[in-house]
């Protein structure tokens, strides 16, 4: 009587090689294809000579016109977005310049105030000196 363990083990190995591995391979291919179609878009259709229809001049011209219209529309959109970006850039630059000017004006006002304060202190000091001189001399005319 053959060893039952070898018969059953051999059967599992046969099932593994004949069923599981091909299913695993096909499943892997399906997952890879699905991932690629999500990331890169659908795969290009194979063009067999049987599937190709002859394109006549009218269809070719119409396709060229459609392509030209699409290109013109794309260029128009690109120009629009470029103009918009340039306008926004110039607006931001103007705002920045205005802020810089405002900050400089405020700093200049502060400097003028400080200068006026220092000047007033100097005037007060010189006035006090003059008063002391008159007091030391003994008053007016004396």
SSE layout and pairings?
Blueprint: H1 4-40, H2 57-137
Structure description:
The protein is mainly alpha-helical and 142 residues long. The chain has a domain at 1-39. It has helices at 4-40, 57-137. The N and C termini lie far apart (152 Å).
Instruction: Give the oligomeric state of the chains in this entry, treating copies of one chain as homo and distinct chains as hetero.
Output: single chain
Q: What portion of residues is helical?
A: over 70%
Please tally the β strands and state the result.
0
Quick one: overall form?
elongated
Show unreliable segments: none
Rg, Cα atoms, Å: 46 Å
The number of helical runs is 2
| Classification by helices and strands | mainly alpha
């Amino acid at each position: 009587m053959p060893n039952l363990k070898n018969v059953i083990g051999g059967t599992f190995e046969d099932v593994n090689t004949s069923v599981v591995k091909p299913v695993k391979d096909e499943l892997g291919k399906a997952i890879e294809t699905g991932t690629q179609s999500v990331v890169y878009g659908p795969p290009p259709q194979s063009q067999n000579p049987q599937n190709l229809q002859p394109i006549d001049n009218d269809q070719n011209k119409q396709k060229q016109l459609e392509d030209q219209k699409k290109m013109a529309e794309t260029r128009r959109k690109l120009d629009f977005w470029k103009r918009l970006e340039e306008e926004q850039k110039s607006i931001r630059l103007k705002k920045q310049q205005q802020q810089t000017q405002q900050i400089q004006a405020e700093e200049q006002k502060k400097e003028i105030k400080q200068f006026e304060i220092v000047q007033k202190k100097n005037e007060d000091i010189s006035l006090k000196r003059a008063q002391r001189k008159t007091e030391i001399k003994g008053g007016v005319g004396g």
